């Protein structure tokens, strides 16, 4: 079974993860989001217990 031979695929996977981790990811993380989260307080809702018919 040629799928079980990790020789070419392991090297390709390691190279692609290194390229992603060292080159692509820092470039993507340098972008600032256009819609920054605001300091708006969330409104808390009061939940009522469920009235179970068999109790």
TrEMBL record:
<dbReference type="GO" id="GO:0015986">
    <property type="term" value="P:proton motive force-driven ATP synthesis"/>
</dbReference>
<keyword id="KW-1133">Transmembrane helix</keyword>
<keyword id="KW-0375">Hydrogen ion transport</keyword>
<dbReference type="InterPro" id="IPR001421">
    <property type="entry name" value="ATP8_metazoa"/>
</dbReference>
<dbReference type="GO" id="GO:0031966">
    <property type="term" value="C:mitochondrial membrane"/>
</dbReference>
<dbReference type="GO" id="GO:0015078">
    <property type="term" value="F:proton transmembrane transporter activity"/>
</dbReference>
<comment type="similarity">
    <text>Belongs to the ATPase protein 8 family.</text>
</comment>
<feature type="transmembrane region" description="Helical">
    <location>
        <begin position="6"/>
        <end position="24"/>
    </location>
</feature>
<dbReference type="Pfam" id="PF00895">
    <property type="entry name" value="ATP-synt_8"/>
</dbReference>
<feature type="region of interest" description="Disordered">
    <location>
        <begin position="35"/>
        <end position="55"/>
    </location>
</feature>
<keyword id="KW-0813">Transport</keyword>
<keyword id="KW-0812">Transmembrane</keyword>
<keyword id="KW-0472">Membrane</keyword>
<keyword id="KW-0496">Mitochondrion</keyword>
<protein>
    <recommendedName>
        <fullName>ATP synthase complex subunit 8</fullName>
    </recommendedName>
</protein>
<keyword id="KW-0066">ATP synthesis</keyword>
<keyword id="KW-0138">CF(0)</keyword>
<dbReference type="GO" id="GO:0045259">
    <property type="term" value="C:proton-transporting ATP synthase complex"/>
</dbReference>
<dbReference type="InterPro" id="IPR050635">
    <property type="entry name" value="ATPase_protein_8"/>
</dbReference>
<keyword id="KW-0406">Ion transport</keyword>
